[in-house]
């Protein structure tokens, strides 16, 4: 059952964050999808998704990647979109430092250009070194960068905190990054 949930979680991430059109799903401008439509369209692609499985995935996902609306008729990804979505996040004051986990091979580019959002809507930062290690280890030999977010905020950069506690910003210039 755990293997099935992992498959559905990855499929949900792909669909709700990047390519809803691959299953013919429509998201509203806030990233919400109709739950019944999602289940129907996923099952048309040889899945066996049920509301019970979907509720389990949303409740048990360690990164809280997905959220239901209050009556569980809609679902969306909490952050990490590569498609234009308005998550309706309000600017917040970040802690003095945040962390970013990345692979060793990315350091030269980061030193030259800072942290760029690439194909995503925001740069993702972590509140703890442990989370940054977990994130960065997916991409190779991990390096944890310390981001001087208090200084950035004081210089006028804007930060957001997603529903699943990922810190977001548009760009982190190299001068605010320490290895």
Automatic annotation (TrEMBL):
Key word Transferase present: yes
Gene Ontology terms, MF aspect: transferase activity
Keywords: NAD, Transferase
Pfam family, one: PTS_2-RNA
InterPro entries associated with the record: Ptrans_KptA/Tpt1, RNA_2'-PTrans_C, RNA_2'-PTrans_KptA, RNA_2'-PTrans_N
Enzyme Commission number(s): 2.7.1.-
SUPFAM superfamilies per record: ADP-ribosylation (SSF56399)
Homology family: Belongs to the KptA/TPT1 family.
PANTHER family tied to this protein: PUTATIVE PHOSPHOTRANSFERASE, TRNA 2'-PHOSPHOTRANSFERASE 1
Job of this protein: Removes the 2'-phosphate from RNA via an intermediate in which the phosphate is ADP-ribosylated by NAD followed by a presumed transesterification to release the RNA and generate ADP-ribose 1''-2''-cyclic phosphate (APPR>P). May function as an ADP-ribosylase.
Classification via NCBIfam families: PRK00819.1-4
Name of this protein: Probable RNA 2'-phosphotransferase
Organism phylogeny: Bacteria, Pseudomonadati, Bacteroidota, Chitinophagia, Chitinophagales
